[in-house]
Amino acid sequence: MSDxxxxxxxxxxCDETGIGLVRGHTLIADALASSVDEHARFGGVVPExxxxxxLDAMIxxxxxxxxxxxxxxxxxDAIAVTAGPGLAGALLVGVAAAKALALSLGKxxxxxxxxxxxxxxxxxxxxPLPEPTMALLVSGGHSSLLLVPDVTGDVRxxxxxxxxxxxxxxxxxxxxxxxxxxxxxxxDRVAKDGQIVIEFPRGLTTQRDMVEHRxxxxxxxxxxxxxxxxxxxxxxxxxxxxxxVAASFQEAVTDVLVRKAILACKENGVDTxxxxxxxxxxxxxxxxxxxxxxxxxxxxxxxxxGLCTDNGAMVAALGAEMVAxxxxxxxxxFPADSSMPITTVSA
Amino acid sequence: xxxLAFDTSSAAITAAVLIAGEIRADVTRIGATSHGxxxxxxxxxxxxxxxxxxxxxxxxxxxxxxxxxxxxxxGLVTARVMAESLGIPAYGVCSLDAIALQVVDEALCDQxxxxxxxxxRREVYAATYxxxxxxxxxxxxxxxxxxxxxxxxGPVFGIGGALYxxxxxxxxxxxxxxxxWLGRVVVEHPDRVTDTTPLYLRRPDAVENASRKxxxxx
Lengths: 347, 218
What we know:
The complex is a heterodimer. Chain A is built from 13 helices and ten strands. Chain A has helices spanning 36-39, 47-69, 88-105, 114-120, 122-126, 166-176, 183-191, 209-212, 220-235, 242-268, 283-295, 305-308, 312-324; strands spanning 6-11, 16-23, 26-34, 78-84, 109-113, 133-138, 143-150, 154-160, 272-276, 299-301. In chain A, the strands form two sheets. Chain A has a five-stranded mixed sheet, sandwiched between helices. In chain A, strands 8-7-6-9-10 form a five-stranded mixed sheet, sandwiched between helices. In chain A, β6 (133-138) and β7 (143-150) form a beta hairpin. Chain B has helices spanning 35-50, 69-86, 95-105, 149-153, 159-163, 179-188, and strands at residues 2-7, 12-19, 22-30, 59-63, 90-93, 113-118, 124-129, 135-142, 155-157, 170-172. Chain B is globular, with a radius of gyration of 19 Å. In chain B, the strands form two sheets. In chain B, strands 3-2-1-4-5 form a five-stranded mixed sheet, sandwiched between helices. In chain B, strands 8-7-6-9-10 form a five-stranded mixed sheet.
């Protein structure tokens, strides 16, 4: 194991500055700095605030990662960095930092896809991924179903959100309910005291939608339905049952996610579902996926919450896999690509 | 001292190597939105031209702006990470001061002058200097027409002069900062060196959300 290459991964696609160190499938260190508190009063991530925070956090976060690992930067064998998708200015801080490391240390650099990294990270916790694997990626910026024959080079999108990302819907509904940003953890918390008594719409599940948008998602209509429901109570002078609304909303989101993920597994003959992204930290999504998948013989793999949200270890994990499979490294001139397609695993 | 200098505060991506104060490499490429793609290869070329490996360096000089934020950060994070990984210091230099030093050392002007660059959004970054190149005011960010009459009628260096030619009477070259002159600031005027904190001069655009949006009429 110790002769496997040591890969340093850099993640800056949104509001988390992550530096991870991975050797093979072994997590060595994972240092994180977050600017989430600076965004809270704006109700969402402000790109320029995030970019400034990445610059300030880069060196301290690198220092923490190498101190935890008890190594020096000279011990690193390769650099991996999120090249996209994400916030353009934020991505660029990480990409420039990675190139600076590669240039200084004379080591190869891999510019990798953020979504593929969310899949690859599961190997750090649950071992090698079966091939193919189905991946459900749900976060504040993404909601995608991916068929993954090879996480280092063959990732096929089956569907994605056509409007809001799942995490975005959590944030917006939290706001309607007077809960803080980011909304996911707060809705999860208050929903535990609620009943699933309100039938909110399941986006893109009608018969016609299942033809045209079989594996796509839509959460914008759900968000609006929740807002209308709450406003109707307020207009009638009635109290809003926050816990029930949260539980019912959460159920509507997770029901569609899990239903379509299982359908995708069945139709593609895949027996393993990996769930990643920040929304994968949601307790109802985890429990529903586990129970429904178990019933149909599909293995569910969900990394621990700290590996589901954005982090450097996931980038290092994908980089390590690319090194192990002999994938060619990138040059020093690759761009940060805010809309990098998932079919492009490395820049 | 073997010094690598670079700047990404303008449309010019510029890197230079100075050895004992002598310029051994000086590479500049233009790309207003390509700092992330162009900087590392430009640095690699400058080092190659000078016959140096990164590990040979004793220090790094970087322009701290002011300049458009996204490009500016590419230079700053590159300088900080290279310095950290090589175990050498990173020196910050106001990018406008580097143009001012070139103006004085190349005798492009024999009186007080201004350096004015592009801040986008119909504004400029500006600093004024005495005839010896000492900074008198700035750097500031403002519309060119709001600079003092004396500044607008005197010699103006930097791309801002050409961009807002109607506001100025004596527009001169150079238009962009050169890394070679940035490096010379460190060598010749260590008192003008700062840390690598960026000169943003503007706060991020962001509006606090006062209340939630309703979807039904109130």
